[in-house]
From TrEMBL:
Lineage, uppermost ranks: Bacteria, Bacillati, Bacillota, Clostridia, Eubacteriales
Protein name from the UniProt record: Penicillin-binding transpeptidase domain-containing protein
Keywords: Membrane, Transmembrane, Transmembrane helix
Family assignment from sequence similarity: Belongs to the transpeptidase family.
Chain positions covered by the region annotation Disordered: 1-24, 553-573
InterPro entries linked to this entry: Beta-lactam/transpept (IPR050515), Beta-lactam/transpept-like (IPR012338), PASTA_dom (IPR005543), PBP_dimer (IPR005311), PBP_dimer_sf (IPR036138), PCN-bd_Tpept (IPR001460)
Highest rank taxon of the organism: Bacteria
Gene3D superfamilies: 3.30.10.20, DD-peptidase/beta-lactamase superfamily, Penicillin-binding protein 2a (Domain 2)
Amino acid sequence: MKGPDKRQQLNEDGNNPPTKPQSSVSFGMRVRAGIVAGFFALFSCLLIFNLFNLQVIDEKGYAEQAEDQQLKDETITPNRGVIYDTNMKVLARSATVWDVTASTRDMATYGTDIDTVARNLSQILEMDETELVTKLMENPDSNYVLIKRKVEKPVADAITSWMDEYNNTEGNEDHPITGIYLTQTSKRYYPYGNLASSVLGFTNVDGNGVTGLELYYNETLKGVEGRILSTENAWGYELANNNYQAKYDAQDGYSLVTTIDETIQSCLEKYLYNAVVEHNVERGMGIVMNVNTGEIYGMATEPDFNLNDPYTLYDTELANQIAAIEDTTEQNKQLQAAWQSMWRNRAVSDILFPGSVFKVITASAALDSGKATVDTTFEACTGRIKVASNPDVYMNCAEHSGHGVLNLAQGLDNSCNPYFIQLGWQMGADTFCDYLQAFGFTERTGIDMYDEAVSQTVSRENMTAVSLASSAFGQTSAVTPIAMITAISAAVNGGNLVQPHVVRQVLDSDGNIVETIGTTVKRQVISETTSQTICSILEDSVDNGHGKNAHVPGYRVGGKSGTSQKNQGLSGEDDEQTYIASFVGFAPADDPEIAVLIVLDNPNSPTGSTYGGSLAGPVVQNILSETLPYLGFEPEYTEEELAVVASPVPDVVGALANNALSTLHNAGFNGKIVGSGTTVTYQYPAAGISVNRQSTIILYTDEGATGTMVQVPNVVGQSIRVATEMLEAAGLNISITGTNDESSGTVVAALQRIEPGTEVEMGTVVEVEFHDTSATD
């Protein structure tokens, strides 16, 4: 009989009886132990591999990383190069300034009171105290909090003095001023403020160029940063007893010697600004250029801006409108657009219809190609010409009654559109386009200026009879002012297209010449004979024709005016039409050296004129009248000019009255005695003042006499003869500027430099500018 199952038996206390003895560790536990052992073995292998990789395979790389984490790297800012004018006058330079920073970690460590720091620094730095406290409190554990950039030496000295005084005052030992640091850097200064602002450009807070030469030559000017390497701890502090330090000196930037002449630039800006104000011009552009070398003596855009404060808009009304915009995104967008417009160098970046100034190019091409001669005539000008048959399309002449039959010289002087339309047709599209390309209108001039635009012309393939007609008299092609004056220079300098440039030399930090930028002749465009013919025609236009507003007594000047419609979709008679008035002049006309181009965009002159000859011609005349003597060109006066040329007034105070009159007469002046004495006690104008000959010098003979005051009459709109008589009757003298040729009967006073009604001393010289109102383009 089978015995009972032992698994069913109970022991004496009612529990299951013990089973057969087994091993003390279960199978599951052995598995877990194996996994753990395997993990540790794998970890050990990885650790060994990484150690091998660190110490053997990539020892250098990881060592460099460790070194980077232990090294403090400080930048040494190089000195940015200086920008000079052609006579080594400083136009832009950098000076030492300081950035004010704070270490709030240091301030907390040494118990510096933030409120005390904010109260005193806000006064010295002219900052808002509450904003400064907030800035410091928001960064309670920082080694670097920027407080203010680029403070000048007096301010930096004031901060240092305040800290020293505070820390040396008894009772402040437990809470000293610490953690305020002055870091030396540099700031760009422009000694002349607004001078050549669109040419020079300016730098940002990091010292990099934003516009102009500062941007174009940024890599040349900025130099190479230096470095100071030293060991630091994990908190960013330099270690005590630092045994490691390496210094790599900064390399200062190169300097630029420009072709800009401060004297000529100032003259250009003065007269361009006057024209913008007097004729309510939206903007004005001007360039003075050496026609033979391509050197730019002056380049300006008006209105301009202050290079030392380039983010303040000159247009306060626009600034207020932008400030009133509530949407921040839109406000920033409008502000950026306003800045870019204000900074823009429009003489190289804007393309404009040149109008009749371009006729110089058309005439040069026709003569040089043999398609015309100076005697070439066409169908008589009746005031308009038909340029298409279906539909009927006519183009008008500025002289609505027509010019009749003209030769080339007459056509150029009278600026006859129908003549030049027929001249363009006679050349044909291929020849015309060949010369467009040769004169440089299909490419950039290559001037060393940022953001030069490319002129827009009709391509050879698309040049129809209509577009050729309008292109020939300067309406369809849109060109930059720099391209226009470069092409005109080629037309008058003997035929060479030169590359314009603004920088003449590059200097290293020791003043040694690194690079010289000379004349680059791109190609011969027209023959020397053709160029001489063009010069002769344009000189005659200034002497005897419609360019007389640019005449300069004593000098041979040539020139051409232009007036173009900005909106070609509108009729020239439409009240909504706007215009561009321009004039280009050059001298000496028999051997040209200097050219001046003035462009007035959208004039709204009180005279009612929009013509370049009337508005821009006098600006060219004024600039040449000052620039030519400055450049060393001696005047050669005609007998008529010599009779009224300005001369210094002799000193006759103390002389007997009759003797004084004789002295004045011998010097070419008139005299008028006021008083009952016999000896001159006072004269006006004073001795040494230059006034026109034939002026009247007032001689006072009473003891203690002073000048008699008189009122200036209004002579605007009067002829030279009438204006002179009116001023003489008032006891005043006249200085005539502009054109003094009364033969046409259309020369009148356009403006006077002393306002009518002003009380002045008897004998005062009133400068009156006369314009030829018949000048058309």
